[in-house]
Amino acid sequence: MTLLSIHNLSLPIEDPVLKFLLVLIIILAAPLLLNKIKVPHLLGLIIAGAVIGPNGFNVLSRDSSIVVTGTTGLLYIMFLAGLEIDMGDFKKNKWKSLTFGLYTFIVPFVLGYLGGIYILEFSILTSILFASLFSSHTLIAYPLVSKLGIAKNSAVNITVGGTMITDVLALLVLAIIVGMSQGDVGTEFWVKLSVSFIVFALVVLLLFPIIGRWFFKKVDDKISQYIFVLVMIYLAALLAEFAGVEAIIGAFFAGLALNRLIPHTSSLMNRVEFVGNAIFIPFFLISVGMLIDFKVFFKSWETLEVAAIMLVASIGGKYLSAVATQKTFRLSKEEGRLIFGLSSASAAATLASVMVGYNIILSETETGEPIRLLNEHVLNGSILLILVSCTISSFISMSNAQKIAEQDNEETISGNSHEQENILLALNYEATVERMVNLGTLIKAHSNTENLFALNVINEDKNESSVKNAEKLLHLATDTGAAADVKIQPLKRYDNDVINGVNNVIKEQNITDLIIALEDEKGFSPSFAFNLYNGYLQSEDVNVLVYHAAQPLSTIKKYAVMIPENAHQEAGFFHALLRVWNIARNSGATITFYASENILNILQRIIKKANIEAEFIIMNTWKDGEKTATELKTDEALIVFMARRGMKSYIPQMRRIPELLNRYLLDKNYLLIFPFSEFDTSSSEKRSVGNHDDFMEIGNVIKRIFK
Fold it and tell me: Which residues make Cβ contacts (< 8 Å) with residue 206, sequence separation at least 6?
């Protein structure tokens, strides 16, 4: 160990405060410095790890503190990959993911096996394990791609799904080869491995969502919710190890299990991503860099030979797999290159497999030297593979992800869609504020981070308690929005009539959507019904949403959506429909539409442009829909498209809705949507969806809002 005594300071640094400070400075400086020269900062973190690590200047040792935090970062990457998968798109692309997973497993495996058996002259077992190193990959560039807002792109979905398949196969090969090398492969081995993996998958994918839904219903504390997520990640990772596979598979499965319970627009999702990208993932990248030792490549030509074969098998195999996937599914060149970029990085599973193989000693030489399953040349070659592959992955992924993001922006600009979105939350009760904000962030466009308004109307007598209550409600709303990285503009208004105050703000701020919340226990009171029909609905150019929340939005598994006949002929139908689409996409809940056949045909045409998980059931009469609403199960909610009197879709039976809701759905979530009936045609930018037959424009609007 090198020692440098300067003011009682020795290398490697052991003082925990100084160690953590140094790592934080690296995490802070890497993005600031490297972004200026357009180098992905994750590459800078890896290089920084190599420089300060034990094989560099030995400033820091790769001790247990670095390993533990880095392991959390690795699990975090896999967890986020599973968490951010759009399950609707994943199911839609499952065969594409399976195809890519097989491509990206088989092609590098074959190249690696041929190189190992014929060029390096390894044994069959060693060659198989050697080949499996190149089949797996780590989504090290996924956080970069996600930040650009294209995580829902089909190429990304295909790659993430394929990652699960190829990593599972590669790690199963590792488990089998380790078992065979130790001479305990038999019927019992295969049965134990198969049963344990199936039990693990069933426990995580079936039991974890039940536990999570129960926890989020019972616990409102935000810190406890985040700690619960961490517990689930590590618990799934531990169960995976018990099942005989690597922990990263457990973390990925945990992400899939909690996918629907952590909405993409929620404050919890913001916390999960923030802490991971700020602390844990950078620690992992630095810890990977600490493994790199450049000196070994100048000591042995054999190491360089092994490293060259590893690079060709891994990078070449991943490139051929990406090209095959692109050609098979007719993807664009940018999407094909993005698949290659994301899948070309070897770090996690590769490193795990190498270390396991290196630690297995088959026998000894005459001089007492250990004969390992994977020798030191493979170990050192894997370090170079990690550095080169992560470099290629970073540059290729960033370059093509930016091109795809720019293309999406160009399509948006050229699509004649200029819908302005201003959402107003009419606050009244403290218990409903957080729920209203959560609904607002769920239905809004992803790009809309400022045009949300929270309003409380104070009687003009300026009662001091009323003013304090208004400030309290508005402060709670802005804090809740800030937790989800959404800016909510507070509005405090003095007026002798609450409804007049709300309607005046609607005009002043060009409000497109008004959200009103109902108290849990009261539901639809006679006074509220009177104010709704004779007050709020008098503004005919605003989309009015009446919301009742009996449980957190994230715990809703399914929505039943009732749409009356002729609703598609109303001016605000498609604007209101976008809100339902956003609920489905951002929450991950499934939607069952109950409507007439002609409306269902329209919805099925739209779903081809903007996919969600949906079912379509013909509703012959409104009474059939009411019966369905009264039979909702636990964790299901209702959305009803209503209509103002005199509109084409208005039917007299709608007058029974408040009574029905109070009788059957006081313990359920429901949302009543009153689409606007007309709008100011002189303001073309306020509404862009007036032409009901222009499905291409509707598709562009949906696509833009989902970005």
Answer: none
SS3 612: coil
pLDDT of residue 46: 79
DSSP 143: H
What would the pLDDT profile of 79-117 be if each residue is shown by its tens digit? 887 887 777 767 777 888 899 999 999 999 999 999 989
Q: What is the pLDDT of residues 598-637, one digit of tens each?
A: 999 989 888 877 778 899 999 988 888 888 888 899 999 9
Bridge partners of 591, per DSSP, are 559, 614
Q: What are 611-615's contacts with CB under 8 Å, separation 24+?
A: 611/86, 611/88, 611/89, 611/92, 612/88, 612/581, 612/584, 612/585, 613/87, 613/88, 613/91, 613/584, 613/588, 613/589, 614/584, 614/590, 615/590, 615/591
CB atoms inside a 10 Å sphere around CB 557: 17
Q: Which residues of 645-671 are buried (b: 16+ CB within 10 A; e: fewer)?
A: eebebbeeebeebbebbeebbbebbbb
Residue from 340, 495, 517 nearest 425 by CA:
517
d(CA 300, CA 131): 22
Cα dist. 488→269, 437, 472 in Å? 18, 9, 14
DSSP assignment letter at 631: T
Over residues 491-535, the pLDDT tens digits come to: 988 888 888 889 899 989 899 999 999 887 777 888 888 888 888
Indicate the SS3 state at residue 59: coil
CB 268 within 8 A of CB 225: yes
Residue in this structure with the two tokens 């050697």, named with its chain if needed: 130
∠ CA 370-349-98, nearest 5°, is: 135
CA angle centred on 193, ends 192 and 194, rounded to 5°: 95
Give the helix/strand (H/E) hosting 615: strand 614-618
CA distance 160 to 139: 8
In angstroms, the Cα distances linking 314 to 101, 178, 290, 398, 404 are 14, 22, 22, 20, 25
pLDDT given for residue 670 in this prediction: 93
| Exposure letters 368-395 (e unless 16+ CB within 10 A, then b) | eeeebbbbebbbbbbbbbbbbbbbbbbb
* CA 233 – CA 256 distance, rounded (Å): 11
Residue for token digits 């030191």?
376
Section 3-27 average pLDDT = 77
| Integer Cα distance of 138 and 516 in angstroms | 45
Stated pTM of the model:
0.78
Q: Are 234 and 225 in contact (CB under 8 A)?
A: no
DSSP for 182-196 reads TT--SHHHHHHHHHH
Distance CA 255, CA 212 (A): 12
Stretch (H or E) spanning 249:
helix 247-258
Task: List the structure tokens of 163.
Answer: 């990652």
